[in-house]
Amino acid sequence: MMDTSEAERRWTAANQMAFWTATAVILIDGYDTLVLGYAAPAIGKELAIGLGQFGLIFSVGLLGAVTGAAVLGPLADRHGRRPVLLISIALFALFTYATTFGRDLATLAVLRFCTGIGLGGAVPCAIALAAAHIPSKRRQSALQSLWAAFPGGGVLGGVAASTLATHGDWRVLFLIGAVTPIALLPFVFFVQETKAVQCARDPVDILGSLPRKTLSSLLVPERRIVTIGIWTTIFLLFLAVITIPLWAPTLLQLGGWSERLAPVMVGLFNLSSVIGMLLLRRLAPGPRGVRQLQLLVGAGAIASLGIAANFENFAINAVLFALAGLTIGGAAGSIVSLTAQTYPDRIRATGLGAAMAIGRLGQVIGPAIFGALLASGSGGVAVFVVLAGIVASAALSLILLREE
Predict the structure, then answer these.
(1) Rounded to two decimals, what is the model's pTM?
(2) CATH number of 1-198
């Protein structure tokens, strides 16, 4: 085992292996989480599942991810990150493969919930393992770069879906998602385990369970308004940033787009999200950073409205989907960094953990809301108008952070 103090002093080959292995885990995790969105139209046609019902499947899968993070995260703290990460990867690989045998709504929901448990457990374990190997001076920017791999997995899913659209089976998308993580297991096995991780201080807690400190410290009178602003913003942004890649392929095909072009738009969104997260790793501190983020989120709301207004125009939508990813996706990563800057060191982990829990709740609720909207007869234009309103509300909620 490696003492975490070693990672404070140098950026060794072993440390870099841990970082890049964790990046690969999160990349694959992102692919397996978002691939159902690409496959939904084809699955719906073959299995006679109403498109509105996919909201339930999306949300159940994300609920499984919340469960996995809550259950497997603490187990990793007690029994080691590497063994629990290996189990998590094997779990989501197995159930991603089993998804190819799904024949009805109930079976798919159960399989995606079980897949989500593995996916939810893998992310905090991978980031915790990487964080212990990253020198402290590099840690904040490195962890934000690591998280950018998640939408990167969505980009790969878009490429695969577009390639298979005309001469492939939707099951191949899930076979890719099952085989690839198995190939990664040997690399995870050889990553050095650490003796301890300082969970009260490391930014990794944003992806694990809630810290043990009381939440009441976040809601004292002098901090209450800022905390409510952070919780509202992250709830709305995380809701939006998971809804677009999950629902857009289906919405675009309903609007007359081909099976080949619809994944391209979502791939542009995910790729721009990666770029946005990387560009915004060092958001300005204090009120200036809040204003920058507010302008960014406002631009994302305008981009969403633009998509609704030009729903059938490929060229314009290519630009607008890229802009939405750059702004909404980039902002979703930046709000976490801004949260870390908002709270003092003694309650920072508590603030980050609570914010991420609220964000996950938005990710569970969002797909179900838009599934119900589709089931009521609304089309893609209406969905993106509602989405624009949600993103605009996130921009307005950032006003509360100026109380800092």
Answers:
(1) 0.75
(2) 1.20.1250.20
Q: Which fold has domain 210-404?
A: Growth Hormone; Chain: A; (1.20.1250)
Give the other-Cβ count within 10 Å of 57's Cβ. Answer: 26
pLDDT at residue number 259: 74
Is it the case that residue 366 has pLDDT exceeding 50? yes
Burial code (b: 16+ CB inside 10 Å, e: under 16) for 35-52 equals bbbbbbbbbbeeeebebb
Least confidently predicted of 5-14, 44-53, 62-71: 5-14
Question: Is 267 in contact with 31 (CB distance < 8 Å)?
Answer: no
What φ, ψ does residue 376 adopt, rounded to 5°?
Answer: -80, -5
CA 402, CA 404: separation in Å to the nearest integer?
5
In the numeric block, the tokens 């677009």 are attached to 244
Distances in whole angstroms, Cα of residue 42 to Cα of each of 11, 222, 240, 249, 258 = 46, 52, 23, 10, 12
Other C-beta atoms within 10 Å of 268: how many?
A: 22
Taking the C-alpha atoms of residue 168 and residue 163, their distance in angstroms, rounded to an integer, is: 8
Residues of the chain with CATH 1.20.1250.20: 1-198, 210-404
Give pLDDT tens digits for 237-293.
Answer: 999 988 888 888 888 887 777 777 878 888 889 899 989 888 876 665 567 778 888
pLDDT-derived band of residue 143, with 50, 70 and 90 as boundaries?
Answer: low
Residue (of 124, 159, 167, 121) closest to 35 by Cα position: 159
Six-digit token string for 41: 């139209």
DSSP annotation of 398: G
Single-letter amino acid, residue 403? E
